[in-house]
Amino acid sequence: MMSGLLRGAAAGAAGTTALNTVTYADMAWRGRPASDVPQSVVERLSEAAGRPVPNGDGRRGNRLAGLGALSGIAVGTGVGAALGALRAAGVRMPVWAGGALAGALAMAATDAPVARLGVSDPRSWSAGDWISDAVPHLVYGLVAYALLDALDR
User: Fold this and answer.
1) DSSP symbols for 55-122
2) Transmembrane ranges (predicted)?
């Protein structure tokens, strides 16, 4: 099981790199700004935990941006580890199905807190917003699951 978790974490890290690559390429192509959603989620979570991010030196925004990016890496690696554990337990799917499921899980793991914390309401998103969110997560899932599949051989 430990081997499955480690393989999955590595696959999740590779998937996260692919997701970030697609996201940054989209930003460069369309000239769109970075999303402030990750740092808003971190801000709300830290306040709810009673541990707000400090601002003593006026760098709170930078800290939130860094923590937001790190939280995305943690989610991607964690979802990958869960997928690795499932594979170690014998759950096997074709890469296209496992990749789609992995992408959906990663997307749910990021969008559910966004909605629950009131940072954004996915019900109000445009088709373009959904595509900008779904495509990188699908790429994440395909890369992560394909790597897991390759590591099993």
Assistant:
1) -TTS-HHHHHHHHHHHHHHHHHHHHHHHHHHHHHTT----HHHHHHHHHHHHHHHHHHHHHHTTS--G
2) 64-86, 93-110, 130-148
Average pLDDT over residues 112-125: 94
| Domain spans of the chain, in order of start | 2-35+71-152
Is the separation of the CB atoms in 134 and 107 below 8 Å? yes
Q: Could you give the count of Cα atoms lying within 13 Å of 7 in the half-sphere of its Cβ?
A: 19
pTM of the model: 0.92
pLDDT of residue 58: 84
HSE-up (13 A, CA, CB side) for residue 60? 11
